[in-house]
């Protein structure tokens, strides 16, 4: 169960195998054919050679930007992600200070729009922005709930930033390779963790267990740390999917999908860090 935002995408997903004998051939890049192939194929075989003036003009022309090529770039992803994060922080801060009761509205709205956006083939900026607003309500409200532990919200924010930066560093350094085996392990681990969390939630809601349910004490600390490790692995898989989209020449509009996927992972990571810190605070008696 990788991030469905990326794994369900024909652009960011893993290259699909063809029906060739042995199953080793990969499907052709859809962005190397069609209108793109026709556009750039005119300079291929059978065309008369260009003169010195034409070559000079091409050499002196400014480099094409993403606006010219309409292809996905890392800058597109950074700008979209930064904008959505800024919006989420503003909404979260307003909810925290003025309307923490909107946490349930944010949770339900975020869940619905999260599923809708995850399975859309073409990104909708409006729906992604709306999802970010709902997630801001959820983050602000849940932060208010856990704010009884002094300084815990700031620590969770700082922890999320550090985990994101550390994950990006490890990925860029190549010290951890995102291989098919890596993603398969992550998928199985996330499925197991999701089932555990569902059972634990039911036990808490029904009153069978109090507090954090099965996540109290040292067991809760260990489970929380395991969840954060899964979050780090998820971020690395997200980075790999984005890299694949850029390399395959995905349309520039897919930057919205990439940014949305990162927001999903970061919000989940923040809530896990917040929960872990609260368990540690409770367990230590602070």
TrEMBL record:
Database matches in InterPro entries: BaxI_1-like
Presence of keyword Transmembrane helix: yes
Taxonomic superkingdom: Bacteria
Protein name: Bax inhibitor-1/YccA family protein
Keywords: Membrane, Transmembrane, Transmembrane helix
Sequence ranges of Polar residues compositional bias: 1-10
Annotated TM spans: 77-96, 102-119, 126-146, 152-171, 183-205, 217-242, 254-271
PANTHER family per record: CONSERVED TRANSMEMBRANE PROTEIN-RELATED
Organism: Myceligenerans crystallogenes
A matching Pfam family: BaxI_1
Segments of this protein annotated with the region Disordered: 1-32
């Amino acid at each position: 169960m990788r991030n469905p935002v990326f794994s369900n995408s024909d652009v960011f997903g893993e290259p699909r195998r063809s029906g060739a004998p042995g199953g080793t051939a990969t499907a052709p890049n859809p962005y190397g054919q069609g209108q793109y192939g026709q556009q750039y194929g005119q300079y291929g075989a059978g065309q008369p050679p260009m003169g010195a003036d034409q070559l000079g003009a091409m050499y002196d022309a400014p480099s094409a930007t993403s606006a010219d090529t309409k292809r996905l770039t890392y800058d597109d992803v950074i700008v979209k992600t930064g904008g959505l994060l800024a919006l989420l922080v503003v909404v979260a801060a307003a909810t925290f200070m003025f309307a923490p009761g909107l946490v349930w509205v944010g949770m339900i709205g975020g869940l619905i729009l999260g599923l809708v956006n995850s399975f859309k083939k073409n990104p909708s900026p409006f729906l992604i922005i709306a999802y970010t607003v709902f997630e801001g309500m959820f983050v602000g409200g849940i932060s208010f709930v856990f704010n009884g532990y002094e300084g815990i919200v700031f620590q969770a924010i700082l922890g999320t930033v550090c985990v994101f930066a550390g994950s990006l560093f490890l990925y860029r350094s190549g010290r951890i390779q995102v291989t098919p085996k890596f993603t398969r392990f992550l998928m199985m681990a996330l499925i197991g963790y999701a089932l555990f969390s569902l059972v634990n939630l039911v036990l808490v809601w029904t009153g069978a267990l109090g507090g954090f349910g099965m996540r109290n004490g040292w067991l809760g600390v260990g489970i929380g740390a395991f969840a954060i490790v899964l979050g780090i692995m998820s971020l690395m898989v997200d980075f790999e999917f984005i890299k694949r989209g850029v390399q395959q020449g995905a349309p520039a509009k897919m930057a919205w999908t990439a940014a949305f996927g990162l927001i999903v992972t970061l919000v989940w990571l923040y809530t896990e860090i917040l929960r872990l810190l609260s368990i540690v605070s409770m367990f230590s008696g602070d």
